[in-house]
């Protein structure tokens, strides 16, 4: 992987995830929420998409499949991060008991 490709991968993953987050925000926007809620959702989507991109890249998933999953990760950012948090906590607790 060339050094110039790394930032391109990050930017692509973030933009795709933000697109997924924007779609969810537009589809599910309650009338009482404003721009702050929208921007926070987009930032969360970008983070979730980037994390999912790292996981999928480590697993050797093809680029086209990664793009699709990263977009869905952006759409489901809040739920996805909760699942990943629970899995990580389970791994950490299990590693602490092995000692």
Output the keywords.
single chain, 99 residues, mainly alpha, 4 helices
Shape: flat
- Main pleated sheet: none
Give the SSE order as H and E letters. HHHH
Rg, alpha carbons: 15 Å
> Strand percentage, roughly?
under 5%
Low-confidence stretches: none
Number of domains: 1
Q: Whole-number average pLDDT?
A: 84
Description:
This protein is mainly α. It has one domain. Helix content is 83%, strand content 0%. The protein is built from four helices and no strands. It has helices at 5-27, 35-59, 63-75, 77-97. Helix 1 (5-27) packs across helix 2 (35-59), helix 2 runs antiparallel to helix 3 (63-75) and helix 2 crosses helix 4 (77-97). The radius of gyration is 15 Å and the shape is flat.
Quick synopsis:
The protein has 99 residues and is mostly helical.
